[in-house]
Specification:
The complex is a heterodimer. Helix content of chain A is 72%, strand content 0%. Chain A is mainly alpha-helical. Chain A folds into two domains: 48 residues, no CATH class; 238 residues, MetI-like (MetI-like fold, Orthogonal Bundle), CATH 1.10.3720.10. Chain B is mostly helical. In chain B, helix 5 runs antiparallel to helix 11, helix 8 runs antiparallel to helix 11 and helix 11 crosses helix 15. Chain B folds into two domains: 66 residues, no CATH class; 219 residues, MetI-like (MetI-like fold). Chain B contains 15 helices and no strands. In chain B, 75% of the residues lie in helices and 0% in strands. Classes of the chains: A mainly alpha, B mainly alpha. At the A-B interface, helix 1, helix 2, helix 4, helix 5 and helix 6 of A face helix 2, helix 5, helix 6, helix 7 and helix 8 of B.
């Protein structure tokens, strides 16, 4: 850069607004949206959560302090719903990571028709949640569903079975639907990580006598571990707040068997008309998610880029 | 260890044990591939078959996988048929609403988010790093924590059941996502480029528009596509905000198919296929951009 250009750049940088003001102007529109739709509602939710607001009893909304929170944290229903959410989270995340890693490894092999697998793998992820949930609800249908038809025709099942209306199995069926949709995402992210592993490292290890499995465990896995961890936390966060796929497939039933904590909060507010307790529940869930988010951002900050 | 010349490697046949092992490995991998393809494609196939099968065929036992009667009647009824019933009217209105809402959200979030992303990537100001994290936190906030106050606020402003309410709500979580991902893209562009533009007399805004935006075009496309898919897919906010065809989006309209006259799974499948078409086509055609965006958005930071 010539001296003249440098001088002009310095002038451009110095003029006429300080950088902080420019930044403020650039960020202001985004900040306004967040203020209106997130910050103000969050404040209002905090306010609501310390009152006893019942829609069946308008006009009588006494201040109750932290009672809504204490009631929930000591209620069996709340902890049962939390346990179900944890079950859904642990099982679906574990399956998605396991299958996702297997799929990513498969996708990195030099196989014929590999292009086809790589081209279609994204499709389940792209299917809207509503369509995915209804599709599986149809497949799992007790009387006309494809699952019953397939299993009986293969001789694996003697008579048609109830899936979604069976409280022992319903959660597993929801997990199947979620795993089917989200495993491709995990596979795509892990595949990208695998692509960035230097192939020479593996070849050197193989030449030195390491088996394929050893090379994977000692070299590949440590190198992709940061991404695995990030995906793990990300999926955990998404799974714990799960609402739509369950709501559409089972509505939280049968007999609350699939009522996760977000479903429980929704039902408390909109079916129990109890907005005070609902708001408190929303805050409790948000707190859990924010802790996970902090872990996630920390992992990103340490390993990202 | 010095490696033998390539020619030697090529001409020496590996010993039988090695060949058997290689064959077994290939068989295992191809078997895995077939399983993966079947598991991914079979549900789609069944959805497509259900969407064109006559209701009689879907209710047959034992089920025949290839229906005896195939018709596109339900596709026609839901989209262009001249005597639409309530379901069809609702579906058409919802398709329009979803298109308008998702497009507007994408446009608004891209403009507002890219502006902020530029500031975070290029400008130095106090509180920059925590402000980025604050935006990111709002993106991750579970909707369940916000639906009650938003429901009340939108009701009292008489904005419930309007597309506008959904547009502003969706923008509130799509914008932070855009900021997050675009900041990364802009940081990866050399600052010399916008410095050069500024020497030539561009303002900050001019540099962003004339230099950064063209260079970051692939990133912008990735981000915009993901933004559109997020808005297209949203369910919970739509469930509490929408009431009538004036604002119902596709997920809600399709969910409404349930229960009106029992569950007509054929109709659900047809509606589902139509609703899935835009996102599935986008993902398929723009796969490279979607994958790049997903990686940048979730594991790169």
């Amino acid at each position: 850069m010539s001296g003249l250009a440098r001088a002009r750049l310095a002038r451009a940088r110095a003029s006429p607004w300080p950088e902080t003001w420019v930044a403020a102007a650039f960020i202001a529109p985004a900040a306004l949206v967040i203020l209106l739709v997130v910050v103000i509602p969050l404040g209002r939710a905090a306010w609501m959560s310390v009152f006893d607001i019942s829609l069946v009893r308008p006009g009588n909304e006494p201040f109750v302090g932290l009672r809504n929170y204490i009631e929930q944290l000591t209620s069996g229903d709340f902890w049962a719903a939390t346990a179900r959410a944890l079950f859904f989270t642990v099982v679906s995340t574990a399956l998605e990571l396991g299958f996702g890693l297997a799929l990513a490894l498969l996708m990195s092999q030099p196989l014929r028709f590999q292009w086809f697998l790589r081209a279609i793998i994204i499709l389940p992820w792209a299917l809207p949640t509503i369509v995915n949930a209804l599709m599986w609800r149809w497949i799992d249908n007790a009387e006309y569903g494809a699952l019953n038809a397939l299993l009986t025709q293969l001789g694996l099942l003697h008579e048609y079975k109830v899936w979604l209306s069976n409280s022992d199995i319903a959660m597993w069926m929801v997990i199947v639907a979620d795993v089917w949709k989200m495993t491709p995402l995990v596979a795509i992210l892990l595949f990208a990580a695998l692509q960035s592993v230097d192939r020479e490292l593996i070849e050197v290890a193989r030449v030195d006598g390491a088996s394929g499995l050893q090379a994977f465990r000692r070299i590949v896995l440590p190198l992709i571990m940061p991404v695995v961890l990030i995906v793990l936390v990300l999926r955990t966060m998404e799974a714990f707040k799960v609402f739509d796929i369950i709501w559409i497939m089972t509505g939280g039933g049968p007999a609350n068997a699939t009522q996760t904590v977000a479903i429980y909060a929704y039902q408390t507010a909109y079916q129990g008309y109890d907005f005070g307790r609902g708001a408190a529940l929303g805050y409790i869930i948000a707190l859990v998610i924010m802790v996970l988010a902090a872990v996630y951002l920390r992992l990103l900050g340490r390993t990202g880029r | 260890m010095p490696s033998p010349p390539v020619a030697v490697l090529r001409h020496r046949r590996p010993p039988p044990a090695v060949r058997v092992r290689r064959l077994a490995r290939a068989a295992f991998l191809y078997a895995g591939m077939i399983v993966a393809l079947v598991v991914v494609l079979a549900p789609f196939a069944w959805l497509l078959i259900s969407s064109v099968a006559e209701p009689v065929d879907l209710l047959e036992r034992p089920l025949r996988w290839i229906p005896a009667h195939i018709s596109l009647n339900r596709f026609v009824d839901l989209t262009v048929g001249s005597t639409p019933d309530d379901s069809a009217l609702g579906f058409r209105a919802a398709f329009l609403n979803s298109t308008i809402i998702a497009s507007t959200v994408t446009l608004v979030s891209m403009v507002v988010g890219t502006l902020a992303a530029y500031a975070f990537a290029r400008l130095r100001f106090p509180g920059r790093s925590w402000l980025v994290l604050a935006f990111m936190a709002t993106y991750m906030l579970p909707p369940i924590a916000l639906i009650l106050p938003l429901y009340q606020i939108m009701s009292s402003l008489h904005l419930r059941d309007t597309p506008f309410a959904l547009i502003i709500i969706y923008s509130s979580f799509v914008t932070p996502f855009v900021i997050w991902i675009m900041r990364g893209y802009i940081e990866s562009i050399s600052p010399d480029l916008d410095d050069a533009a500024r020497v030539d007399g561009c303002s900050r805004l001019g540099a962003l528009w004339r230099v950064v935006v063209p260079v970051a075009a692939p990133g912008l496309l990735s981000t915009a596509l993901l933004a559109f898919l997020m808005a297209w897919d949203e369910f919970l906010y739509a469930l509490i905000i929408t009431q009538t065809n004036a604002s119902k989006t596709l997920p809600i309209a399709i969910n409404d198919f349930i229960g009106r006259h029992g569950v007509d799974f054929g109709l659900l499948a047809t509606g589902g296929v139509i609703a899935a078409l835009p996102p599935v086509l986008i993902a398929f055609i723009f796969q490279r951009y979607i994958v790049a965006g997903l990686t940048a958005g979730s594991v790169k930071g």
